[in-house]
Design goal:
three-stranded antiparallel sheet, single chain
């Protein structure tokens, strides 16, 4: 690492615009790598702005349906930190920013926990703040439990969206006029 810190971009004789661009690109790569290595050497977690640990406690509740007794699971406690029976990492993704905003603007923002396949004893293995991701889990016949989102997580997601910007609105592209329609081709009538 010491050699990388001493590495500097040496002056390059300017022969053309292309060689200047290549030299600047190389210098930027060297500076980026050296900065990245310095952060990791200090114990910096590169994903700290989009990763939080949450502890989840599940509880089983018997539910009577006609003459059957079913066991329904729910999240009894969801706390920040890594102390507890089930610790999951909530990781925010740039591609899910619109789903985070939708969740935060709802009346009661929720967190969604994937807990194994439906019909089995739940074993939490993933958590998300995106309703789109949770819907995908449910389409795959996964059991999804939900809980109210703690205020600290709401503030953290808001700050994430402020730092990285809102997701761009996806608009459908307009087709050119007449696209997708069969075109009439003029035909010459054959003389009889």
């Amino acid at each position: 690492m010491m050699a990388l810190e001493r590495l500097t971009c040496l002056p390059v004789r300017l022969l053309s615009v292309q060689s200047l661009g290549a030299s600047l690109k190389y210098c930027a790569q060297v500076l980026f790598l050296s900065t990245l290595l310095r952060y990791f050497a200090k114990g910096f977690n590169a994903m700290s702005d989009n990763l939080r640990s949450l502890s989840i406690t599940l509880v089983a509740e018997p539910k009577q349906v006609k003459s059957f007794t079913l066991t329904q699971w729910r999240i009894a406690e969801l706390t920040l930190g890594d102390q507890g029976p089930n610790v999951l990492n909530l990781q925010l993704s740039m591609t899910e920013r619109a789903a985070y905003r939708f969740n935060l603007t709802s009346a009661t923002p929720r967190l969604f926990v994937r807990a194994g396949f439906t019909g089995q004893t739940p074993k939490p293995d993933a958590i998300t703040a995106s309703q789109d991701v949770a819907a995908g889990w449910m389409d795959g016949e996964q059991q999804v439990l939900e809980a109210p989102m703690p205020m600290a997580i709401q503030v953290w997601i808001e700050s994430y969206l402020a730092r990285h910007g809102e997701a761009p609105m996806e608009m459908r592209k307009k087709k050119r006029k007449g696209a997708g329609r069969a075109k009439e081709t003029p035909t010459k009538e054959q003389p009889q």
